[in-house]
Amino acid sequence: MVSLQPIKPIDDKTLEQFGFAWHTDNDQSKYIADELVIVSDAEAEAYYEAVNELYDMYATAAQHVIDNNLFFDLGIPFNLIEPIKKSWENDVHWHLYGRFDLAGGIGGAPIKLIEFNADTPTALFETAILQWALLKHNGMDEERQFNTVYEAISENFRRLITLFDDTEKFESLYEGWKILFSSISGNIEEEQTVRLLQQMAIDAGFETGFEPLGGVKFDEEGIYDSKDTPYEYWFKLFPWEDIAIEEPELSTMLTSIMENQRAIILNPAYTLLFQSKGMMKILCDLFPDSPYLLKTSYEPLQGIQQVEKRMFGREGANVRILDASGNTVEANDGPYGNFKPIYQEYVEFPKDTHGNSYQAGVFFAYEACGLGFRRGGKILGNMSKFVGHLLR
Question: Where do the Glutathionylspermidine synthase pre-ATP-grasp-like domain residues begin and end (predicted)?
Answer without folding.
Answer: 12-390
